[in-house]
Amino acid sequence: MKVAELMTPSPDTLGPEATLEEAARRILEKRYGSLPVVDREGHLLGLLQVEELLPRPENIPFSDVEALQLFGEWVDEGFLEEIYRRYQKTPVKAVMRTDIPRVHPEDPAGKALEVLLSTEVRHLPVVDRENKVVGILTRSDFLKLFLRRG
Length: 150
What we know:
It is globular and about 50 Å long. α2 packs across α3. It has 150 residues and is α+β, with helices and mostly antiparallel strands. It has one domain: CBS-domain (Roll), CATH 3.10.580.10. The strands form three sheets. It has a three-stranded antiparallel sheet. It has a three-stranded antiparallel sheet with strand order 4-5-6, with no helix packed on it. 29% of the residues lie in helices and 24% in strands. InterPro entries: CBS_dom, CBS_dom_sf, CBS_domain-containing. It comes from Thermus brockianus.
């Protein structure tokens, strides 16, 4: 089986200048876990996953203490009200992941599954030979496949 047979073709994408507010609204409205970020011609620039939009626990340097960090800054509970204002101003390109794996439509589906299971990426962009996004593949796509085969 090839990636093309399993992927969702022509996925929604974002431009790098879209705000985090726009991205978060689309992710919530469509119930996505991520959105590929592309240039005007559709070339893959990065991937914005829900995880990039949320604070995450990090170890404070030279300490055993963990604190929340968002967009590279330490945040406390009082800062949470400030997040919406940051979402309005911050472009997607400031927080998107650029070090993401990708697959091609003609690749074996097994190769894509290995990538999904061995990386932190939960949504795998599918690109053509010119690096234009033509599809997206998720872990859930494989679950659906396994259930169909049963």
